[in-house]
Specification:
about 350 residues; mainly alpha; about 65% helix
Length: about 350
């Protein structure tokens, strides 16, 4: 009797004439767009400017792709530099192979450069982008489905994924670990959004929560996988990485909450140019002019009061005092609403 299962695509690429459309790359691109879209909405909601998230992503995404590929090639070097292997394959990113740890680490470097150029704090930007990164991973994992890779142990469960025979794989039905991780990442994104609204997380704590929650899921999902990997003390390398990164994320969350409680009040300063910067400068100049007028008026009143009171032009002196007091009062009065 046939069992239900998730079929795999017969090919991971569709050709439109000479242009190949690869499922793996398509999933990653969709994930990046979703992350930037959601990150922009969260950034604006926290007082930032529209477009800032995308501007910094221009730095973070390329760095992340390079870092993800480097991590994969280094930790699975035998796939590219072993006997009978072709090292040129290390550059064929469309065939799969991006390590999330390298992507996050190098992506953070790129984001730091972008944040420095814009004069904004990296932790605040990371908090805004955290759930979007989780959703990007959820979409990206479906690229493994197109490539028929990173599946788990054999199973006859109704949601098993069918794998066809190919290099280094046997035909059969297996645990769809790509699906498990995709669903877990969606749950992580929802958790971060809820916790951020409920507890007003700031100073990088929303990002730390994303990292810790993802590591929990990655540990048990990684344990189910059967693809070739390095082992340390009986555990796969990525399981150990998840444990270490989880501990670091939790430590950062706890220490940050003690040292810098609350959330940033300002995430993006006014630009030096443009309408925002112009309005800010004009507002500052108006406040300073008003303060100067107030100080001058009070000083003039005091000077008149200190003058002789029995001199001939006493009436004129009184008129001057009254006029000066009026100007001082006008300087203290709040501006009328001109809207």
């Amino acid at each position: 009797m046939d069992i239900a299962y998730i079929p795999s695509p017969s090919t991971g690429v569709i050709h439109l004439g000479p242009i190949p459309l690869r499922g793996y790359a398509f999933c990653i691109i969709i994930g990046v767009f979703v992350a930037v879209w959601l990150g922009n909405k969260r950034w604006v909601a926290r007082g930032g400017k529209p477009g800032t998230v995308a501007d910094i992503a221009v730095w973070a995404v390329p760095f992340g792709l390079v870092g993800g590929r480097l991590y994969h090639v280094i930790t699975d070097y035998q796939l590219y530099f072993g006997e009978g292997r072709n090292w040129v394959d290390a550059f064929k990113i469309w065939e799969g192979g991006l390590g999330i740890w390298g992507a996050i680490a190098f992506g953070a470097v790129g984001a730091w450069i972008g944040c420095r150029l814009r004069g904004i704090p990296l932790p605040a930007w990371a908090d805004a982008l955290a759930p979007g990164i989780a959703l990007a991973q959820a979409f990206g994992r479906w690229g493994n489905w197109f490539n028929q890779e990173l599946y788990g142990r054999a199973t006859d469960l109704p949601w098993a994924v069918e794998i066809s025979a190919g290099p280094n794989r046997d035909a059969g039905t297996y645990h769809p670990t790509f699906l498990y991780e995709s669903l877990w990442c969606i749950g992580v994104a929802l958790l971060v959004i809820w916790a951020d609204r409920r507890f007003k997380l700031g100073h990088g704590r929303a990002f730390a929560l994303y990292v810790a929650a993802y590591c929990v899921g990655r540990s048990w999902i990684e344990y189910m996988r059967v693809d070739e990997a390095h082992h340390i003390l009986g555990l796969r390398l990525n399981v150990w990485t998840s444990i270490v990164v989880f501990v670091l994320a939790v430590l950062y969350f706890v220490l940050s909450a003690k040292l810098r409680p609350g959330r940033e009040e300002v995430v993006e300063p006014a630009a030096s140019g443009g309408e925002g910067g112009k309005d800010a400068k004009e507002g500052t100049a108006a406040v300073e002019a008003k303060a100067d007028a107030k100080a001058v008026g009070k000083a003039a009143v005091k000077a008149v009061d200190a003058g002789p009171k029995d001199s001939a032009p006493a009436l004129a002196q009184g008129a001057v005092k009254a006029d000066l007091r009026k100007h001082a009062a006008d300087a203290e009065a709040p501006e009328a609403d001109k809207s």
